[in-house]
Each structure stands twice: as C-alpha cells, then as structure tokens.
Amino acid sequence: MVYDKSYVKQFSSYTNLISLMQRYSDFQENIVDVRMTASDVFFENTIRTNCYLLKSGYVQITDIGKYGVAYLMIGSPGKIISLPIYYSEIPQLLEVKALTDVVITRVDFEFLKKVLQFEDPHNYITINYLSDLRKMLYQEVTQNTAAVRTRIINFLIYLADSLGMRAGDYVVWLPHFLTYEVLAEFAHCSKPHAVTILKELRAKEIIDTHRGQWAILDIRKLQGLLDA
Fold first, then answer.
1. Whole-angstrom Cα distance, residue 61 to residue 102?
2. Mean pLDDT score of the chain
3. How far apart are CA 74 and CA 97, in angstroms?
4. 214 — phi, psi (to 5°)?
5. Are 71 and 140 contacting, i.e. CB atoms less than 8 angstroms apart?
6. Under a CB-based contact definition with an 8 Å cutoff, are residues 69 and 55 in contact?
C-alpha cells in the first residue's frame, strides 16, 4: 500500500497529535511540558513509561547501546523523540541533549498507546516516525563509511535541506545551534579537523558566518564538492 506523504505528515504533526489526545478526559493528568535550557541532558533507560514530543527547539538524540553509540539524530520541533515499537527493541539508554532552549511534552506511554489504537487505526503516526527514523539512520550509515571531508559536507547539506532557511536561490542559513563542536560530533571527527575543513570552505566562498550564525553562500557549489 502506498501512502500520501503530505497527509501522513500532517496527521502526525504535533498539533494534530495533541488535538487527538485532548479528546480524552484524562488528557491533563497524562501529559506535562518540560523545559530545558541549551546543553541540558536527560537519559531514558529501558524501563520506559513515557513518550516525548518536541514542542519547540532542537535536541540531539543519542542511542547508547551495549556496544557504544548506535546513532546520533537531531530532533526538530514537532518530532516524536522516541516511540518504542517492540519492547525488545527499546534502546538500552537514550540520551537527549538540548541544542537550544526547548520545550518537550512528556506523555504517559500507556495513555498514548490507547489514543493511537482508537484515533490512528491506519498507523499513520507510527509510519511517519519509522520513515523519519529510516532517513536518519541512512544518514548515519553514509556518514560512517565516508571520508571526514565528505562527512562534514554531507552534514552541512543535511542541515540545509532539513533545517535550513533559504535566503535566495542558493543561499541557505543554517540553524543557530551549529557550532564546531556539534559539527565535529556528527561528522565523527576532531574539532580541529572540522575547523580546518570549514576554513577551506570559507576560503572558497562557499560558507560564511554572520553574527555567529553559519550560512551556505552557494548550495550548488557545496553539493558539487561531493562529485569532485
């Protein structure tokens, strides 16, 4: 069966999911908004009783398994941070780090499961979550198999495509939370290595900064480096 992508995304939006839960009289007692400031961290283990929806801001999500870090992801506003599908596949330890000031809506998992059973019989929300997860895991796999320079360029393009703000045909402003440290972590390299490559891109007038925020000056040139 083929699904309408735009409809599935709209149905799975934060606003609609909250609206579905508000139909139930026990809504208020099963959800709470949690505020975090940039760099705050919390952990969730396998004894999972809550699900987390990102109301505003950006977070870094790390799945820490028995063999170390399994994947890194960026959660953006409206995303479900964690939605366990099988109990046996719940991450052993999930680290959520605030990249900006954030508001996270904590939902009792049994309450959410009840709502989804009645309000989402076609499993649109689960399908959307798994689709987003698949894309992020693909990004992580390609990062692990590429050279450092390629990993950094790939991550910049990913940020531009998924979280960037266009300011013309080819200029893209990157999220405010992007720092050398964040770039190095997601590119799996040292900070000095990330600094060196960004200096190279800056010298070629492909990227630049303004008041601490990075911008890609010509997304075509950046993408072209992957084919060079």
1. 13
2. 89
3. 10
4. -80, 145
5. yes
6. no
On the 0-12 / 13-18 / 19+ scale of CB atoms within 10 A, 1 is: exposed
> Using CA atoms, how far apart are residues 73 and 147, in angstroms rounded to an integer?
19
CB-based contact 20:120 (threshold 8 Å)? yes
Residue 29's pLDDT band (boundaries 50, 70, 90)? Answer: very high
Q: Beta-carbon neighbour count of residue 153 at 10 Å?
A: 21
Question: Could you read off the pLDDT of 128-183 as tens digits, one per residue?
Answer: 988 888 887 777 777 778 899 999 999 999 899 989 999 988 999 999 999 999 99
pLDDT tens-digit map of 204-213 = 999 999 888 9
Q: What is the DSSP string of 71-126?
A: EEEEE-TT-EEE--SSGGGS-SEEEEEESS-EEEEEEEHHHHHHHHHHH-TT-HHH
Tokens of 219: 């997304």
For the segment 28-50, the average pLDDT, to the nearest whole number, is 88
Q: Which of 90, 76, 36 is nearest to 165 (CA)?
A: 76
Nearest Cα residue to 76 out of 56, 97, 104, 61: 56
Within the chain, residue ranges assigned H as helices are 5-11, 14-21, 27-30, 109-119, 124-144, 148-163, 180-187, 191-203, 219-224
Distance (Å, rounded) from C-alpha 111 to C-alpha 109? 5
